[in-house]
Amino acid sequence: MAGRQLTLVCVRHGQADHNVRGNAPIFVFTEEEKPALNSDLTELGRQQAKLVAKRLATQKFDFAVSSDLKRANDTANAIASLNDTIETVVEWKSVRERCFG
Fold this sequence. Notes:
Radius of gyration: 15 Å
Low-confidence stretches: none
Number of strands: 2
Helix content: 10-25%
Strand order of the largest sheet: 1-2
Shape: globular
Distance between the termini: 40 Å
Structural class: mainly alpha
Strand content: under 5%
């Protein structure tokens, strides 16, 4: 019996506010025992998300997952918006960054 081939496509989120020096006052943390930095994409980050979305527009996906953090979810949804094989992006808290990426 032949096994199925698995192709895993990993994409890092676009540039986020916390990636830009001097944006410290906009840090927003989740309210949890182990808080996570939940920052927005910058304008450049949104452009980067659109570029990777165009690159992956014809890639077939069986499943799409993102962390529940805004920058990752916004990047994943930009990809999904241009890809007909992605019906929804499932948020998994378990795939969040470790030690602030």
